[in-house]
Amino acid sequence: MPANAACPTAADLRGEHLFELLNAKLSEFIGPGGSWALVRRTDDDTDRIFHAMLTHQIAAELTRTVLDEREAVAVVVSAEDAPLALSWEPAPLVVWADPVVVPESEADAASLPSIGTAAELEARAA
Prior knowledge:
This protein folds into two domains: 78 residues, no CATH class; 30 residues, no CATH class. 45% of the residues lie in helices and 3% in strands. The chain contains five helices and two strands, in the order βααβααα. It has a two-stranded antiparallel sheet. The longest helix has 25 residues.
């Protein structure tokens, strides 16, 4: 990638913006001036293939609308300004620690402190 090439970043569509976008697209399908009328299903309705196809078409159109909008509102950061996008170095999530050698006398389970025997714990829980 050239040093001065711009690389788009992912746009974050949130709440109201996303709602308005999807509401407008759904209105094209089933809104007051939409292509289709929305009616409740009855027991006589047996056209499952048509409904599955139409559902798939609507889902594809909604996905395309969201992806197009995300592309349209993407923020482009030039290569010179890229370091400004993250001006700090994040700390590592895991830090390497050298193993600790525990003397064998301390590693014995009998030498460790106890909260009580199983019978004592059962008695306290009852």
